[in-house]
Design brief:
The complex is a heterodimer. By secondary structure, chain A is an all-alpha fold. Chain A has seven helices and no strands. Chain A starts with 8 loop residues before the first helix and ends in a 23-residue tail after the last helix. In chain B, the strands form three sheets. In chain B, strands 1, 2, 3, 6, 7, 8, 9 and 17 form an eight-stranded mixed sheet that branches. Chain B has a six-stranded antiparallel sheet with strand order 5-11-12-13-10-16, covered by helices on one side. In chain B, strands 4-15-14 form a three-stranded mixed sheet. In chain B, strand 7 (246-253) and strand 8 form a beta hairpin. Classes of the chains: A mainly alpha, B alpha/beta. Chains A and B meet through helix 2, helix 4, helix 5 and helix 7 of A and helix 2, helix 4, helix 6, strand 5 and helix 10 of B.
Chain lengths: 155, 544
């Protein structure tokens, strides 16, 4: 029976192996398997439901990957031989990984947030005032062909 | 070849005075202007209306959606409204959006005027061609469109002639902008706070920017100007008729060479016709030549408006790349307007001792979320494993990007033609894009990458990363139906009127003679407004 998002159990297991190689655990970051990235109903299913274009392309990549059991060897070969497929796999796995709440907490990112614009300074006002004092630098019709015209900025 | 005169058997829409093809930037500006003047306008748009609540910027899945259904490439997005592009010979790949608002839905809102020298590249630098109009002639129209779009910025930039104040104060330049402004100042290089068609204050019924940095996939707030918000409501209130889901197949001509209307399909249905006194093409520099070429008939076997042979030729795309600077402190640069925080015109003009002519405009931007880092094409580095974690950690909120937009000179070999095999959902030949980056552009890119790297290092970056060119960022297709005074060497006159057809106008970026290095939206809008005023003032003459 085919699992959700079109992945069979075997494809899901292979996705988990590859995802753990793409996003391994470190002292600061959870591994893909630690967040259950490839489990049914997880962030990978969210990504594949949202991106049907990727779903259609990633399943054959998973199937083809079993001929190269070592995930790191497979990723190296995929990147070298079929870079388009490599980017599809990267987009699926990293897209899912950085959707996971645990990962977002770890990196301090909570999506693109709505911020109120201040009504005060825009930043760099002193520098801007200095720039305003500079002479015109644009070239007008009175300029010369060599770009060193006598009337740069004079129109 | 069959004649393209009106087929009486086609179901017809009511006749209109002015028929506009495309509801994007230029089509909206022109339609609103004419409708306000009491002229009956009908616009056909192949896409649909969008609800800004649907844009992904305020959703948790924003980044992954922006890379798919909200991607700016129609070949990636593959939406129902899109037509495919054959890009197999394109070193820069066009970006666009089809729908009410057109590419303003996904553009960054960088709002720049062309430089005076852009209109005189042959006289000043011996390259390209001079325009039949100049900066001063367009300046009053720039002033008007600045107000229509609600532009935020600061007047007084020494890189430009004097101009009126912007309608709104500038947006904050961000901590990354302050760092880079200081670096530019130390180098003695030009910088200026970004001018953006993004609201810094409430304006014209729209809310100000919330710094979500998601401009490139549609603004949920409506703070970024897109013509579905800034122009179409006013145009429709004034009587303009906007028909969505209507893909134009070909333009109709009578025996005297006057455009009589167009044939279109609504939602892939049967062919219908609509007739008009004046036909205006506003379908961008890819779609407009495609339509003119697809309208070939017995009297015009090379396509309409093409006696010069220049329809589709001289395609310019602004070769583009980025330099990323990494800072060792949090800058909050995952947020901000995108939109430009700063711009620099330090290297925008020709300088004789360089090994290229013309120049590049730089725009400093915030740098987005973790996927921007993870999927950036890090040159020579592995993208996966611990490297991915390191990339995201170093990038997120601690980077600034100089985008480098180069002026490419018009070359007739860079062109839009009709593909022999690829077709859209209605069976119309897809455009085939041929674009090769010139030696001048490659030298310009290399020079500017080196200088932008210097800028970021001077600004405190401990590391920079750059690419020689980013081929997927062809935001600015231009020049494929150039204007000019000589009917043998141009497609339209200085008003956008086709030399070959007295009542056929073009108002999109196709008409540009040269491309500048700056973002072209303000210039396209100003030119469209100017053409609208000309149509209005010469209405009686055209009817006659």
């Amino acid at each position: 029976m085919t699992a959700r998002a079109g992945m069979s159990p075997g494809q899901r297991r292979r996705m988990a192996e590859l995802a753990d190689t793409i996003a391994p655990g470190t002292a600061l970051m959870p591994s893909a398997s630690a967040i259950g990235l490839a489990l049914e109903g997880s962030v990978i299913d969210r990504v594949l439901a949202l991106r049907r274009d990727l779903a259609a392309r990633v399943l054959p990549i998973l199937d083809g990957s079993v001929a190269t059991p070592d995930p790191a060897t497979f990723l190296d070969r995929l990147e070298r031989e079929t870079p388009g497929d490599f980017l599809v796999l990267m987009e699926v796995v990293s897209g899912a990984y950085y959707l996971a709440p645990e990962v977002r907490v770890a990196i301090g990112y909570f999506g693109q947030e709505a911020l109120s614009l201040g009504r005060g300074e825009i930043g760099g006002e002193d520098l801007l005032a200095a720039m305003m004092q500079r002479p015109p630098r644009w070239r007008g019709a009175g300029d010369t062909r060599d770009g060193r015209g006598p009337a740069a900025g004079a129109g | 070849m069959q004649a393209r005169q009106a087929d009486a058997s086609l179901t017809s829409e009511p006749r209109t005075e002015v028929l506009v093809v495309g509801a994007g930037l230029s089509g909206a500006v022109l339609s609103e202007r004419l409708a306000q003047a009491g002229i009956r306008v009908t616009c056909l748009e192949q896409g649909r209306r969008h609800d800004r609540a649907d844009y992904p910027g305020d959703k948790s899945f924003y980044e992954i959606a922006a890379l798919g259904p909200w991607h700016a490439s129609p070949n990636v997005r593959r939406a129902e409204a899109d037509y495919p592009l054959d890009e197999s010979e394109a070193e820069m790949k066009p970006l666009m959006f089809n729908g009410v608002g057109g590419s303003t839905i996904l553009f960054g809102g960088h709002w720049m005027r062309f430089l005076p020298s852009d209109f005189r590249t042959y006289s000043l630098d011996g390259v390209g061609d001079d325009w039949p109009i100049d900066y001063d002639e367009l300046a009053p129209y720039y002033d008007i469109v600045d107000r229509q779009f609600g532009v935020s910025g600061v007047a007084g930039d020494p890189a430009y002639p004097d101009r009126p104040d912007y309608p709104l104060p500038p947006l904050p330049i961000g901590r990354w902008g302050e760092k880079v402004a200081a670096g530019q100042e130390r180098l003695g290089w030009h910088w200026w706070p970004g001018s953006n068609a993004i609201l810094s204050r409430p304006y014209d019924g729209r809310r100000p920017c919330v710094q979500r940095s998601a401009c490139g996939s549609g603004c949920n707030e409506g703070a970024k100007a897109s013509t579905d918000l800034t122009h179409w409501p006013k145009a429709e209130s004034a009587g303009a008729r906007l028909v969505t889901g209507a893909r134009v197949c070909r333009i109709l001509c009578d025996g005297q060479g006057r455009a009589t209307g167009v044939v279109f399909r609504r939602e892939h249905g049967a062919e219908e016709a609509i007739h008009a006194d004046v036909v205006v093409l506003a379908a961008n520099a890819i779609g407009t030549p495609r339509l003119l070429l697809a309208s070939a008939d017995a009297a015009h076997p090379e396509g309409l408006a093409n006696s010069s042979g220049l329809v589709g030729r001289r395609l310019m795309m602004h070769p583009f790349t980025r330099v990323v600077g990494f800072f060792d402190e949090p800058l909050g640069s995952q947020q901000g307007h995108w939109g430009q925080s700063l711009y620099s015109m330090e290297y925008a003009e020709t300088v004789p001792d360089r090994d290229f002519v013309r120049g590049a405009k730089w725009n400093l931007t915030p740098t987005g979320g973790p996927l921007s880092a993870a999927l950036f094409p890090w040159p020579g580095e592995r993208l996966w494993g611990e490297a991915m974690h390191e990339h995201v950690s170093a990038w997120l909120g601690r980077t600034a990007i100089w985008g480098i937009s180069c002026e490419d000179l018009p070359d007739p070999e860079n062109c839009v033609t009709l593909d022999d095999a690829l077709v859209d959902g209605d069976g119309i030949a897809a455009p085939r894009i041929v674009y090769r980056t010139s030696e001048n552009s490659r030298r310009m890119l290399a020079f500017n990458v080196e200088r932008a790297t210097t800028s970021l290092k001077e600004s405190g970056a401990y590391r920079t990363v750059s690419l020689p060119i980013m081929p997927d960022y062809g935001w600015h297709p231009l020049g494929t139906c150039r204007m000019g005074s000589d009917a043998g060497a141009s497609v339209v006159d200085s008003w956008g009127r086709a030399h070959d057809h007295s009542n056929l106008f073009i108002v999109d970026g196709s008409v540009c003679v040269t491309g500048s290095s700056v973002n072209p939206a303000a210039t396209i809008a100003a030119l469209a407004l100017r053409t609208a005023d000309h149509i209005q003032s010469s209405r009686r003459e055209m009817h006659a």
